[in-house]
Specification:
The chain is α+β, with helices and mostly antiparallel strands. The protein has one domain (2-140): YjbQ-like (Jelly Rolls). The protein has helices spanning 28-37, 65-77, 91-100, and strands spanning 2-7, 11-17, 23-26, 43-48, 54-60, 103-109, 112-113, 119-125, 131-140. The protein has a 6-stranded antiparallel beta sheet with strand order 1-2-9-4-6-7, covered by helices on one side. A 3-stranded antiparallel beta sheet has the order 3-8-5, sandwiched between helices. The relative contact order is 0.34.
Length: 141
């Protein structure tokens, strides 16, 4: 479930709740809503997740199996049941987060995100289910 909120220090906050341990949650609609409510016409959107076990990804959103394939590959690359030194039991989530990265910057022109035909923006959860925040900073050009 996604909720929309506002934080004047950081511009905008999208509150969301993941339902699975590993999950790709599309947030393109929420980012578009931020732009629309801000009457923002041109510049960039900086999208950031402040959580060490999550990330922000841009990839195909038309076919949900693409995000599933990405999560499946990451889980093979960094399996949960490996002998990690980190004692919390979520080292795999930290590794996946480091690979995907915590942020993306997207161009905005004429009040629209400049995305490819099939592209969408995803919040990537690697240690859920949890309540999370995504910060959106709009910067005018």
């Amino acid at each position: 479930m996604l909720k929309f909120g506002r934080d004047d220090r950081l511009n905008h906050v999208i509150n969301l709740r993941s339902n699975k341990r590993i999950e790709a949650i599309e947030i393109t609609k929420e980012i578009k809503e931020v732009i629309s409510k801000s009457n923002f016409s041109s510049g960039v959107a900086f999208i950031y997740s402040p959580h060490t076990t999550s990330g922000i990804m841009i990839n195909e959103s038309y076919d949900p199996s693409v995000a599933e394939d990405i999560n499946s590959f990451l889980s093979k690359l960094a399996p949960k049941d490996r002998d990690y030194k980190h004692l919390e039991g979520n080292s795999d989530a930290h590794i996946k987060s480091s690979i995907i990265g915590p942020s993306k910057t997207i161009i905005i022109e004429n009040e629209k995100l400049v995305l490819g035909t099939w592209q969408g923006i995803f919040f990537m959860e690697f240690d859920g289910p949890r309540s999370r925040n995504v910060y959106v900073k709009l910067i005018k050009s």
